[in-house]
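debug: dumping io for the single-chain case to check the tokenizer round-trip. Nothing else runs in this session.
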Amino acid sequence: MLEEFMEAETIDLLDPMRAPQLRSLLMENLSDRFMRQIAFALFQRMRHSVQLLSCINNVISHEAAISALPEVMLAGISELAPLRGRMLLAIDGDLIGAMVDALCGATTVHPFERYELSMMETRIGRQMIDLSLATITETLNPAVQLDLTPIAYENATGMLAIADGQDWMITVTGIFETALGSGTIKLIAPYAGFEPLEAKVAAQSGLLGGRGEDTSWINAIESLAEMTQVDLRFEVARAVVPLAVFERVAMGSILPLSLWGEAVAVSGDVDLFWADYGQENGQVCCRVRAIDEEGDASMSEQKTRANTADRLAEPERVELERLQGQPRGAPILTARNVLDKVQVALSVELGRTQITVKDLRALRHGQILALNQAVGEPLAIYANDQKMAYGEVVAVGNDRYGVRVTALVEDSTTDTGGEA
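debug: decoded output
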């Protein structure tokens, strides 16, 4: 429970519905990987330390993506086939300059403002673009076969355009650091261009309504079904009685209910199936009994066949009145005439067991389940799902059997009817 002095932020439960679509998530999951691979590939080729500091993903307009490029840079353009559109990869001139300085043997940073790329920097920059696009191709290869060979190079932002200005772009910006300087590598691709890839992944994984089977999901569910336990309790009697009757229950009392000829298996508050009960090796057991549609429909009727007159009636709708002073001698509202209308649900348990979800799905007619109840042990009696007493089976006449209370829970030294 939150303390009064604590400040709590509200949460938006609909926020996942407004999250980016699958194609954005795909690039977000892959971008950090291929940016790190680019850093490693540059180190291998240039023999100079290159580290990825951070990777930033955005979905912005084409115009905003192009205007965010540095003034001094070199960009390569490649086709996205078999996807739609073109991809642009731009390398900051400062990063290219730092790599060239390292190749030339420089050991210190030269702090000067760069206005353009030299011929050598342009040549090295093209190699860096080719290497980066090849690395991205290798990273995306398991998802889609792409050939990102550059079809053009450009060093002026005003000459760059791969879509209309208002089209949405997926941008990935990697910030790299070297011993002689830092800079960025920015990837820009059309948002709509990845729609075929989104549809393919969705179909394979079952996302977004796809029909393809996700084997890893199926295997995970099967594994959970083998490990997840379901608690089953087997009840042999039920009744709903007024609170006045419940309060008079004491040791030796015979409860106002009759035992059924079979037990009903219950999980939570749901009745699952009927079962015949018996014993095996000194343990109470239940044999699963198949029921037809007619028997299934009558289960709720049979399980409450004892004391049906004591069922809780639907309360009458009463309009509340404003409190007023009462005249002298007015009748007093006592606890007795109020609580006598309260109903208590009694149930008698034969025993409990646990079964995995997998085994529950595989249950068949005639299968035997061993319970946690030994033959001769008292039966557990519950009131409103709370264990209150133990009892024994007694004859009540006319081939009918009931339950006599032998001990209250608070007086019992052993909790033989506890949770399984």
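debug: round-trip ok. The domain at 226-291+338-411 is CATH 2.30.330.10 (Surface presentation of antigens (SPOA)).
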